[in-house]
Design goal:
96 residues; alpha+beta; Ribosomal Protein S8, Chain: A, domain 1; four-stranded mixed sheet; 3 helices
């Protein structure tokens, strides 16, 4: 079973005076502290999971490395130009 979390699709409706921090928080599904906590439970799920995060933190990278070192899942992440990120977990051997 795949899990995918999406940000609100109407980002064009944001007011012009929103700060970049508020915009990142609105466009990302998870705040970086939440992503840190979610990576371990996702490692035990079957299938692929994806989500966006307001930023890829060093703490998140440590969690991702840990679950990979234990052979629980593969974790890939991409840092976007606006510093938000996209994360994907998939069982080892499925092209994570």
């Amino acid at each position: 079973m795949a899990t995918e979390l999406h940000a609100h699709p109407r980002t064009e409706a944001l007011p012009n005076n929103w700060s970049s921090t508020a915009h990142k928080a609105f466009c990302a599904v998870l705040e970086h502290h939440q992503a840190d906590q979610l990576i371990v439970p996702l490692a035990f799920m079957e299938g692929t999971s994806q989500f966006s995060v307001d930023r890829i933190s060093g703490h998140f990278k440590s969690h991702a490395l840990l679950v990979e070192e234990f052979g629980l899942t593969g974790v890939t992440f991409e840092k976007r130009q606006d510093d938000t990120g996209h994360v994907r977990t998939a069982p080892k051997g499925t092209g994570s």
